[in-house]
Amino acid sequence: MTQDEPQPLIIDTDPGVDDVLAIVLALSRPDLVRLEAITLNFGNTTLDYARDNVLRLFNVLHAHVQQEGKGQEGLKRSLSGSAYRTIFASKGAEGPIGGEQFTASYFHGRDGLSGISQLHGDPFATSKSIPSPLVEDATKPAHEIILDILRNNAPGTVRIAAVAPLTNLALAFQSDPETFCRVGGISVMGGVLDGPGNTTATSEFNTYADPFAAKVLLHDAPLHPVLQDAKRNACGYTGSLPIELLPLDITRKHTVPYARLCDDVDQRGGILRSFYKAMLSQPRRVTNSHAPPGSPFDPRLYDNFEAHDPLAVAHAMFTPSLFSRRNGSQQTEGGWKTEQVRFGIETVGELTRGYCVVDRRGLGSIKLGKIKPNSSAAKDKGNGDVEVEKPTSGQWDVVVASPGPAWFAGIFCEALSI
Ligand SMILES: [Ca+2]
């Protein structure tokens, strides 16, 4: 792959309203990305609804480009199948690797899209035939399809935008770590490091829904023999996987007014705008409800759509992969900035499942498992020198800046045809 060729991209997703908009963003720019696969994971909704939602989206997009006629050349090219075919891996993980299963119906609605499957007359119907450029593969688990794509592309070239619980990706790593290490970069929407959660007081939904999967990729993977020995890794690196995390800390700064997405002002109509308005109705109600009662409603503060998943897909589209940057061939550009942060993921906390426990002690390069203070418990045992802390955290790349919320809103709204 040369620098001018579109990057092969997999979107691992649990659609979900912001997932659907993230997919449209990727489809709008076939000059930048070749959408190799959409792989479904449980999360915002169940797999059955997630599959229906993808089919509804593509049917609406086809109807939209027929209605509109002119413009949207990128979207048209992607939908025609002339730019690429997209494997639709609908047999994804149905539940987390560990712990109880949860969905986000409180925010996305039971069907993941504000209940559009129950609308009178089913105006955004799913279909029996699979719309182009999708080619459904319901025979293989999604994690095997991810591995197939990594095998069939040169090492370090495939990007993954992970905008769901990380179950499929963790299963892929556990199933064939050598092949999984061929990935060029993984842009993960997940976690929150310095702020409130969006699902519990402490936790973001994706890390809450499957904290065990996050732990497999962030904590367990760097300790695996394949990532300890560069000769066993087709990309030739050791240490952590090429993951860059986009936590709520950055994604919630990237918003678009609901009024713009839902076409409140000029009511231009059309099937795509009607679809956006219908599927955003529940998240909009929930967001609006955060306004304090008894004061005048301020839409600038409480009527904004937080584009969590679209920002992660934008990161995968507009930045060189971490693999290529580690090799020094390309640098992060255009205002994107990444910093290393040391944290661990809580898996079974009584109140804190999915919490990212940031280590702010300034330990530098000290390995946590080597810290051996002379605790009273140790003295009681008579050896005076025992490990009191297992190495449960590591240092990972966290995206802390983008080219800016205004830049993002511009490219996002252009992609959405609004
Ligand atoms: Ca999602």
TrEMBL record:
Residues 9-369 form the Inosine/uridine-preferring nucleoside hydrolase domain. GO terms for biological process: purine nucleoside catabolic process. Gene3D superfamilies: Ribonucleoside hydrolase-like. The keyword Hydrolase applies. Keywords: Glycosidase, Hydrolase. InterPro entries: Inosine/uridine_hydrolase_dom, IUNH, Ribo_hydro-like. Pfam families: IU_nuc_hydro. It comes from the Eukaryota. GO terms for molecular function: purine nucleosidase activity. One of its GO terms (cellular component) is cytosol. Belongs to the IUNH family. This is Nucleoside hydrolase.
